[in-house]
Amino acid sequence: MSSKTYAPTAEMVANAHVNEAKYNEMYAASISDPEGFWREQGKRVDWIKPFTQVKDVSYAFGEVNINWYADGTLNVSANCIDRHLATRGSQTAIIWEPDNPDEGAQHITYQELHDNTCRMANVLKDLGVGKGDRVVLYLPMIPEAAYAMLACTRIGAIHSIVFAGFSPDALSARVNGSEAKVVITADEAPRGGRNTPLKTNADQALLHCSDDVKCLVVKRTGGQTTWVDGRDVDYNALAADASTECAPEEMNAEDPLFILYTSGSTGQPKGVVHTTGGYLVYASLTHEMVFDYHDGDIYWCTADVGWVTGHSYIVYGPLANGATSVMFEGTPTYPDASRFWQVCEKHKVNQFYTAPTAIRALMGQGNEFVEKCDLSDLKVLGTVGEPINPEAWNWYNDVVGGGRCPIVDTWWQTETGGHLMTPLPGAHATKPGSAMKPFFGIEPVVLEPASGEIIEGNGVEGVLCIKDSWPGQMRTVWGDHERFMKTYFADYKGYYFTGDGCRRDEDGDYWITGRVDDVINVSGHRMGTAEVESALVAHAKVAEAAVVGYPHDIKGQGIYCYVTLMSGEEPSEELRKELRTWVRTEIGPIASPDLIQWAPGLPKTRSGKIMRRILRKIAENDYGALGDTSTLAEPAVVDDLIENRMNR
Ligand code: WTA
């Protein structure tokens, strides 16, 4: 692995919020005196009733309990909007860039953000939504998505965003899981020149939900939608008459702010719960420090608000900091592979944050798409979502960043609320592929996977846990605290278990080596192999299925499915297609299988457990190293799988 380092320029070091000495000093203080450190940082947020308690946390299995700033009260939308109005009312809060560049960008000021958020809040109130109620958002990347998030926080409702790429089935499961009162959607979602019929999807989903659920429909394209009287509500008609004032609700720091469903290694996705005070402090601090955001900068995170990255680093972190945040509806390659760079040029973007899968896809298109754009305003580049390979890192650094923009490779998770490990632009010389250093207050520990013993020293590898809590940490799984404790605090007692493996190199810098559980990462989208398996076996012709990830040049990991058919069913190309379509409708296009291998049998232990290790090896085309197969019930099935492997 490359150990070449790339130091920030002298100019970057001189102007950055944090240089190396300051990082060392602040980091040491955050670990030796977390109470003091986070008491101070808690002041970045405006409190209605200031907190006196800072941290009250137990990681003890059976009684895991996480509280930050627990006696303080505040309102998130007031922090993201109202407190800026006196000084930044006419500053742009959100630059909205539509899918089709000819449609023209919108610049939404903080005052306009205020008025539109209040309109949305009043519409929700009129629908009977109040403090603690759940609202599901199923929206394109349009300004109304931000208004809806902030409107929920304004009235104390809990939002749960479902990525617009998810299917009606996935949507109804999340509406029912959170017992939402309202689903906010739009007629259609334009992306990459094509329109997804969101409202039609929502119609299908709502057939499986309570009749009491209302559907608030935002007009995006004006595309034809069916209308269910008494259930569907026209947002634009109501918003036009709604008041632009709505008093922010006083919320406790530990009141839930949002639920976000994410995939785990077992079962169906779980509702990750984040709360109000600690999350906002953490999102705002990391946004400012990690991107070295300065007043007046234009910041762009290309994520979708359907993922945690969009929550923390398009909406809450940047807006809490009074930033100008770009919100992009489209894709990296529409109308052509120059789109990202054209948007950077057009809006003079200073900080740009995207995923390795996009970088790899654009790298493959050639440098001319980048070079024809003026990227001289870029100062910091970020990446998130999966390990970045050094080749893509170098291209990002050289071709996009012109060798002068530090790359922050930010490692974190839906569960963590914000960045846990990353270099800081003015503080650290970076290494291609390394997440480098823990953020303030984060104490990573590397454990021996089997024994759970701490591995000290450098040049070591193991599973990655975090020793203590930080304010942005998730608090529970919605409706299932037991599952929360079992997932994150049972395997390695006394620590938060991340599910990732990592290496601490000779210099003490961290490298994420990928998931150690059955979660895969496809184009930066996190997916449980168990979810895809259960979708496959729900098909009438499928008897059994096992799903693993395999290395994919663009997506990072692809989805490899081993499928055993019901007896009497014949494998065919047509059936392969049918299964692919099936999974897409059960979960969504992002879960579409890349390779489907017909498996007359699956390798199992004598106790009937599928040996995934072997299936992973075959999918990786690395079948020479299968390891110990002596515990297999029927060793011959492996020979068949190797012979008919799909990834050669
Ligand atoms: C992976 C996304 C390597 C990791 C914010 C983690 C990364 C999972 C990185 C969380 C990175 C995220 N380097 N791996 N910089 N960032 N991951 O919940 O496996 O969608 O556990 O959150 O993505 O994915 P999630």
UniProtKB/TrEMBL annotation:
Q: Which GO terms describe its molecular function?
A: acetate-CoA ligase activity; AMP binding; ATP binding; metal ion binding
Gene Ontology annotations of biological process type:
acetyl-CoA biosynthetic process from acetate
Q: Which residues bind ATP?
A: 385-387, 409-414, 500, 515, 526
Substrates-to-products reaction catalysed = acetate + ATP + CoA = acetyl-CoA + AMP + diphosphate
- The protein's enzyme class: ligase
> What are the annotated GO cellular component locations?
cytosol
Query: Family assignment?
Result: Belongs to the ATP-dependent AMP-binding enzyme family.
HAMAP family on file: Ac_CoA_synth
Q: What is this protein called?
A: Acetyl-coenzyme A synthetase
